[in-house]
Amino acid sequence: MIVVYHRNFKKMLQKLPVSVQEKFYSSLSIFVKNSHHVILGNHALSGEWATCRSINITGDIRAVYKERDGGVIQFVTVGSHSELYS
C-alpha cells in the first residue's frame, strides 16, 4: 500500500488542532496495517463522494480517501462530519 495526499489535504490537516493531527497519524498507522480495523469505522460513501471511502479520526473528524490503481491510497479531504457531508 502506498499512501499519498491530495494537494490540499495537508493544508486542511494543519488547520486542525495538533491533537487531531496526531490522532490522524495514529489512525494512519493502524490503517496501513489493517485498513478495515474496527476502530477506523472504514466505510464506503455515497452521493458526491461515491468514489471514496472514509475513516474515523475522532468522534466527529473523518478522513476521506480514494483507492487508486496499483494499491495507491490518496487521502483527499479531512474535516468534521458536518463540514464534509452537508
Layout of strands and helices, then pairs:
Layout: E1 2-5, H1 9-14, H2 18-33, E2 43-44, E3 53-56, E4 61-68, E5 72-80, H3 81-85
Parallel strand pairs: 1-5
Antiparallel strand pairs: 2-3, 3-4, 4-5
Helix content: 25-40%
> How many β-strands, per DSSP?
5
CATH class: Alpha Beta
Arrangement of strands in the largest sheet: 1-5-4-3-2
- Residue stretches low in confidence (pLDDT < 50, at least 5 long) are none
Write down the overall mean pLDDT: 93
Number of helices: 3
The name of the CATH superfamily reads: RelE-like
Largest sheet: 5 strands, mixed
Whole-number total of structural domains = 1
Explain the overall architecture.
- The chain is an alpha+beta fold and 86 residues long.
- It has one domain: RelE-like (YaeB-like fold, 2-Layer Sandwich), CATH 3.30.2310.
- The chain is built from 3 helices and 5 strands.
- The chain has helices at 9-14, 18-33, 81-85, and strands spanning 2-5, 43-44, 53-56, 61-68, 72-80.
- Strands 1-5-4-3-2 form a 5-stranded mixed sheet.
Question: Summed up, what is this model?
Answer:
This protein is of the alpha+beta class. Helices cover 31% and strands 31% of the residues.
Provide keyphrases for this structure.
86 residues, alpha+beta, YaeB-like fold, five-stranded mixed β-sheet, globular
